[in-house]
Amino acid sequence: MANFHGLNSITLNPDDELPPLASGKIRLYNMRFCPYAERAVLYFAKKNVSVEVINVNLVDKPKWYLERNPLGKVPTIEHDGKIIYESAVVAEYLDDIFPDSSVLPKDPYLRAHQKILVERLSAISGAFYGLLRATADNQEAGIANLKKALDTAESLLTDNFYGGKSSGYADMLVWPHLERVEVLPLIRPDLHLDKLLGTDYPKLTAYIARMKELPEVKAAIRPAEHHVQFFDSYKTGKPDYNIGITAA
Questions:
Q1: Cα(58)–Cα(72) distance, integer angstroms
Q2: Comma-separated ranges of CATH 1.20.1050.10 domains in the chain
Q3: pLDDT digits (tens, 9 = 90+) for 63-117
Q4: Per-residue pLDDT tens digits for 185-231
Q5: Could you count the other beta carbons within 10 Å of the beta carbon of residue 76?
Q6: Which of 31, 46, 60, 142 is the most exposed place for a label (fewest CB within 10 A)?
Q7: Is 153 a catalytic residue?
Q8: Which of the four CATH numbers 1.10.220.30, 3.30.720.200, 3.20.20.30, 1.20.1050.10 does domain 108-213 have?
Q9: Where in the chain is the domain with CATH 3.40.30.10?
């Protein structure tokens, strides 16, 4: 999307200099395969806000990044000399400074309900990463945890989106985790999860197809094969953050 500048730029390492940020511009510090950073990418895309993206090495973190976010995580945004981090906080900040395109509802009850949905859907992430690291000893329990999280997600989907007739705050925050769950059978073929999102989850299956048609999701989504390659590199302790970037 035209509002992103550098979304697929080469990841910066400790020896790389940080380019100066022009006055009045917003910068997003990102890692291309982080689901929490993807929340911010989705939010910027949905709101169509112009943003400069700096991709950061999260294993060997640049000093200039830790000076901005002492937790060393993504996403972080820099705006008018201010630093904001944590994905849900970043989303709400963007709604506050760009209220005309607010993703969160104005009504306090509906606003609260979207946040409750995010909390109730949060088990998807833990179940995914649990299975990603699962061994033969605990994989059955891991599969059970994931199915329980997906059962909850299926039951909570009462409309086209978790936001209602159109995508909303809960969709932007849960989608990155569902994107990874969908490719889990390819990342861990040994778990034999080929039919993970089959007939047991008809609403979720239709929802995922619906989400993939949204412009903001098209801007943020990574091809399944790139996810597989990234997680393969991640397991070695040397993640390849630049998978899928074509050299100029």
A1: 7
A2: 108-213
A3: 999 999 999 999 999 999 999 999 999 999 999 999 999 999 999 999 999 999 9
A4: 999 999 989 888 888 899 999 999 999 999 999 999 999 999 999 99
A5: 24
A6: 60
A7: no
A8: 1.20.1050.10
A9: 4-101
- Per DSSP, the three-state class of 229 is helix
* Spatial CA neighbour of 54 closest among 62, 175, 46: 62
Cα 141 versus chain centre, distance: 25
Predicted TM-score (pTM) of this structure? 0.96
Does the structural domain 4-101 have CATH classification 3.40.50.300?
no
Q: Which of 26, 34, 40, 123 is catalytic?
A: 34
